[in-house]
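Recap from last week: sequence in, structure out.
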Amino acid sequence: MSRFSEGFRRAGAVAAALLCLAVIVGPAAAPAAAQTDAEPRSVDQQVEELRRQIEELRRELEALREGRAGAEEPAIEAEAEAIEPAGAPAAGAPPASADRLTELERRIEILAAELERLGLGEAAARAEESVHGLGPAASKIYRTEEGLSIGGYGEMLYQSPDSERDDGSRSGAKDQIDFLRAIVYFGYKFDDRFLFNSEIEFEHASTGSGGEASVEFAYLDYLWRPEVNARAGLLLLPMGFVNELHEPTVFLGARRPDVEQRLIPSTWRENGFGLFGEAGPVSWRAYLVNGLEGEGFSAAGLRGGRQKGAQAVAEDFAWVGRLDWTPAPGLLIGASAYLGDSGQGLEDPAGRAIDLGTTIYEGHAEWRWRGLELRGLVARAELEDVARLNQARGLTGAGSVGEELSGWYLQAGYDVLARFSSTRQLIPYARLEELDTQDAVPAGFAANPANDVESLTLGVAFKPIDQVIVKADFQDYDDGAGTGVDQFNVALGYIF
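Predicted structure tokens:
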């Protein structure tokens, strides 16, 4: 059996297991209660209405206790019944005074519990939707009325690479299972204008075994108006899909796309400040941040140039901006760009400063419709002074940093349970991707064909609830040198 066939066999087995699981649990998810045509009320309106109802019931209770129950009782009872939570016992025929006292006390208790539930919901917002480009869990602070917000996510990843490369040589790679990351979000809303938000990451489970603890972002927002707001601190750069939206439940694939790791070096954060906002179907973000450190660039990409907010060299700064347009529900079209120098004081052997101008730009689009999810991204990076950078770092031949890097991917997924209006999702998906981190190199240097990579990812994702996901896929890798190593992956993810 070929390596490709073996990979498909393993992916197919997992897909079949997930499909069986979905069939078993699917009926329990079949359509919830029908929705009414009434306009949904805000939490504030619901809280105010409950308080009003409780106050009226308390007045009636006092009046009844004093023997002065009025003729308004039936109307008040009807209003209380209209908002009584599902499952509460219905009131019977008009009772005697003692029974009526007990009934009113019971109704007040029910409404007070509902009021408490709504109040808790305001303080402990759910991880439901993205705000200002952040993932659902990272956005919880924006749905909090005031005070503390806590959220998080985590990922565990099993990887099983092929024992052979495409050319038949041994890969030497071993199967591995890793608790990739455990994240905690801490946010605090001071008032309607000022808030703090942060992401604390623990990677690879143990700092004593190659893991680390890092701050992924930590910033202050000043919320002036929807169109224009201010932000300062350790910021996620608004490029591509995954850098800001990297929670495991919001992207398909056990592993993040390679283009959004090696060309757009996710997770990419730097110190800086800027503005953001939205107006109708258009949203935007623009920041000034410390630049990349070009000394960390390599033939494999730009990932090593990230400074991550840690004693970042700030000889050079960069501008990054993003614009997204949502012309119709479910359709997103956008682009982003990064412009700046990455020399950070680096000098060539002659003592001359190397500016290392760096430009990265990308375009992206996504369409979600009735269970269908289509996503595409194309990215390119252009660097100046690469020959001098190679010279300063002693890089020769095929070890050159790329003067140009390019990549793209197309991805499609379909929720086969969507037609059941299920809260559960079963999503077969496919991603086709190309990446070349040495699309062009300076004269006198060579490109390593192993850095010109094509990959096909085929897999399936299962969500028993919106906050939990299991993903399994097979990745077929091919490169210009014939040294690609295929692999099978399984990931478990959660958000809260």
